[in-house]
Design goal:
By secondary structure, the protein is mostly helical. The protein has one domain. It has 6 helices and no strands.
Length: 118
């Protein structure tokens, strides 16, 4: 049942994002930023954790999960270091994931032949 819940919740999130892209004039970058901000808000109001326990990767893999990671990092850093934690927390919490994406993307560019759309 865990897989089914992850599938339908993650699919619903992606479908809603696709509807925003198709039915509004929002650019893809704004939709992605909106999902990250929504993940931060859901973490702040303490809805993200129960949702993640229910849907697992269906909610944590899309951009909502990245927003929640940023929120948790900032919250922990503010508790530990005070005001300066606002600026440090997000970087510390997300550094491994962002670094991994950059490194594996670079490796993939060696393996495959990247082409510009033309």
């Amino acid at each position: 049942m865990d897989y089914i819940n992850a599938f339908w919740v993650g699919g619903l999130i992606c479908a809603l994002a696709q509807i925003l892209l198709d039915r509004t004039k929002m650019m893809p970058g704004r939709v992605m930023v909106s999902l990250v901000v929504l993940g931060c808000i859901l973490g702040f109001v303490q809805i993200f954790k129960p949702l993640q326990e229910y849907a697992g990767a269906g909610v944590s893999v899309p951009l909502l999960g990245f927003g929640n990671t940023l929120w948790n990092g900032v919250k922990e850093a503010v508790d530990k270091e005070g005001f300066i934690g606002i600026f440090l927390g997000g970087f510390k919490a997300s550094a491994a994931g962002i670094s991994g994406a950059l490194i594996f993307g670079y490796i993939a560019s060696w393996i495959f032949e990247p082409k510009m759309k033309g």
